[in-house]
Amino acid sequence: MTEPERALRVFLVDDHAMFRAGVRAELRTYVDVVGEAGTVAEAVAAITATQPDVVLLDVHMPEGGGRAVLEVLRRTQPQVKFLALSVSDAAEDVIGLIRAGARGYVTKTISPEQLAEAVRRVADGDAVFSPRLAGFVLDAFAARPDVPLADPELDQLTNREREVLRLLARGYAYKEIAKELFISIKTVETHVSNVLRKLQMSNRYELSRWAADRRLV
Amino acid sequence: MTINSVTGPPLAPDPTYRADASGHVGVPGEPGAPRPYPFRRLYRDPDHKIVAGVAAGLAEHLRLPIVVVRIAFIALFAANGLGALLYVAFWAVLRTAPRTEPRRGRRGNALQAVGFFALGAGVVLLQIQVEGFGVDATLVALGVLVALGAGIIWHQADPQRRRRSSDRTPDVTLPSAFRPGGVGEAEGDRRWFLPRVLGGGLLLIVGIIGILTVVSPTRLFSPNAAGGIDLSATITGLLFSLLALAGLTVALAPVLWRVFGQLREERVARIREQERAEVAAVVHDQVLHTLALIQRNAADSTSVVRLARGQERSLRNWLYKPVGSPSERLAAALEQAAAEIEDTFAVTVETVIVGDAENDERVAALVAATREALVNAARHAKVGTVSLYAEAEDGKLSVYVRDRGAGFDLSTVDDDRHGVRGSIIGRMQRHGGLAEVRTSPGEGTEVELTMPLARPAQSRNEKG
């Protein structure tokens, strides 16, 4: 993992200044932290101005949280990638941000190396799933014969995608998954990206219900 | 169905991280500011009044020009003075709107007022001229008297007026309705209390007696009609008792209503207070206590981690109420096992559970084997994190316990080492399951446990 490339430009959005300072210090050796914001309005203005590669986005903030930021910027700044970073493990928080357009979701207890790795992955256009998120997706896409599928392509996972998610949930890194399934890391990334797309586009009952319960969609 | 609590990935919590969910107490369905009433209420509008603001209030409520409403009232004067009765009745019943903005200077209403008064007087005079002052008109006039009396008493007891004074002297033990006056501007209310009640009561009684007189003059005041003396005396007595009762009700209704409203408000406040106390109990008894312990053990990073993890878990449980009890559901049982391992060995068990199953003998064995695998990982792997993944799918339960730690050579484990062979492999086999251990030195360890889910029919046979 020592590509001599341009340092990624990362922007932090979190309403806790202490947390921002902590992440900034941790990430300094890996990426270029170009700015930070503590409110939704600040974030929208500063991200538009600085044009970072990746935004680390807190889920819970006053005035609508990370979702509000995403909803404004997804339209105006489609090239900016978002990675959600939160203490919350609640399914509705996870699904809400992913469906609003975040490329991944990690919890705040992640190690600096793993976080830097996740940022890099998101910047490359891939998806980042924490074990927790993988478990959630497996649960939401569980095969239920009684539920009719509106769109079979979007509403169910392939066996391979299921296998990849299962290994992610078991705590495997992408490299380990590739080794376990005898496929390349690139293929693993493709599978995860496909799952992300299905998660964002599918109208599966479980996903819609979670979203509707929280008035997210 | 549910994905149950996953505990975060590795790493000792950095002290710069915020203390977990503390910023989000009560996250689900955050209660926003109370919404304004979804319906519009009819109020009087003293800002645009000529007499008492009834017409202005009605016009505002009906979204009509004020002039239209006023003319309608005056036109109804022609119907034996019905307009007056309606006006006074509205005035008696309606409250003034809670003021949202400072009172604006009253606009040139004086001229308009003179005009409307002249118009009203003209209508009434014309009517008397044409029809004379008939019985109906007398009734309406008396009705106006009754409404006026009731209005005077009711407005005296207007909760809006009182609230201003009770705000200033909060008294939880006694609903402020029972308290006289209050202080400051309420003084005026108190001074006028007796005159208003007496005057209003007088108007009420005169009005009601008058109405009864008009309606049944023969019965009340001509008791000499043949043989009717006893009967009419009884009726008269009855009527006056009813009258007194009605008067009392009319006079006391607003006071009772206010007391009722206040009791309700106090109940709501008490419920809110209880909720606050519950939050305070969690924050105080647990969180603050843990923070104090963390400060005292600051040098010992292992106990700090252990304390922080334990607190995090209990806070999460409190915020996102867990489903089912450990004795009933697989997911809850696994989580409990993971929590115990975390507490005992100061490691992080990253738990992901997909699906759930009811607890039975086999599930209990699976949980016990899982716990043993977790203990082994926590004790021997020498890493901070253990992954636990469980799923209930396609008629079988699978559990994976994985660490990236030291690993070991399976062939060198002695037969007398009870942990792996007895507690995990043997236990799983006895209950019809399978256990597989994959490890090599330096590569970490993964224990895979599978157990076929007993079909409902089978489990019934086994139990029976």
Provide structural commentary.
The complex is a heterodimer of chains A (about 220) and B (about 475). Chain A is of the alpha/beta class. Helices cover about 55% and strands about 15% of the residues of chain A. Chain A contains 11 helices and 6 strands. Chain A has helices spanning about 15-25, 40-50, 65-75, 90-100, 110-125, 130-140, 150-155, 160-170, 175-180, 185-200, 205-215, and strands spanning about 10-15, 30-35, 55-60, 80-85, 105, 130. Chain A has a 6-stranded parallel β-sheet, sandwiched between helices. In chain A, helix 2 packs parallel to helix 3 (about 65-75), helix 8 (about 160-170) crosses helix 10 (about 185-200) and helix 9 (about 175-180) packs across helix 10. The longest helix of chain A has 17 residues, at about 185-200. Chain A starts with 8 loop residues before the first strand and ends with a helix. With about 475 residues, chain B is an alpha+beta fold. In chain B, about 55% of the residues lie in helices and about 10% in strands. Chain B has 14 helices and 5 strands. Chain B has helices spanning about 55-60, 65-75, 80-95, 110-130, 135-155, 160-170, 185-215, 215-220, 230-295, 300-320, 330-345, 360-380, 420-430, 455-464; strands at about 350-355, 385-395, 395-405, 435-440, 445-450. Chain B has a 5-stranded mixed β-sheet with strand order 1-2-3-5-4. In chain B, a hairpin with a 5-residue loop joins strand 4 and strand 5 (about 445-450). In chain B, about 30% of the residues are buried. The interface between A and B is large, with 38 and 38 residues.
